[in-house]
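Shift notes (night). Ran DUF488 family protein while the centrifuge was going.
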Amino acid sequence: MSLLQLLGGEVEKTKLQKLLFLYSQRKQKPEYEFVPYKYGCYSYSASADLKTMIKKEYLLNKENGYVKNDEKDYIKLLKPADKKLLVNTVITYGEMNNDALIQHTYINFPYFAINSTIAEQVLNEKFFKRIVEAKPKQKKKTLFTIGYEGISLENYLNKLVKNNIKLLIDVRKNPLSMKFGFSKTLLKKYCENLGIEYLHIPEVGIDSSKRRKLENQEDYDLLFEDYKNTTLEKTKDNQNIILNLVNKYNRVALTCFEADICQCHRLPLSESIGEIQHNLEIKHI
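Came back to this:
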């Protein structure tokens, strides 16, 4: 809201994302993180917050952008360091139009332009080559595992992109989450927007009723022993499906909630799949 205020209360949607990105790049702990989307740097979380502010009528959603819809002075509510940084960002980049901002971010932050559909049109050969070189190129056949506990949606998605993962397999029994972006429908959408396919295989998940009273590592170890003796024994077909997908896509990730791999069933699951094909590389990210 302070950024809109500094821009005179109105800003184009693409320009807002680019300015917010440039502001965030200057902060040690930014409020928003970004992914390489079809027009460069983009924050799903910021977009969701903007939609909420429109619903609450703090903003008006116009065809060409957003309009501040109240008289409140948000700038005076900022911490001095944030205010200084935001003002400097607007002074430096606020007069640039959309095309200039797109070029600037593509040239200076080429990773965030790797999925751009317009990069070749807006950049000369030299700078476009930088974007091509910034694309992750790992091809070694690997089964990854990843949890989303404690990280933002954008941080999570960037881990997938930077490891050149082609398919995300959701191994939660119930793919629902109170955390923004991690319920099945949204996660599938956000992955596919970045060229990552999504598949849900609930059969290899653990029923929530079995996950109660997990107070220490010993409790988790007992849970996973039961998981190995029951679910993993009954789902050999599903595990072979996952292995076949790894052989097809080369770069596949299993995902669940827990950050600590020792407290998530994706560890025994990946190990079980690794026992089927002994030379399979497994990485936990």
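The chain has two domains: 2-134, 142-284. Residues 2-134 form one domain.
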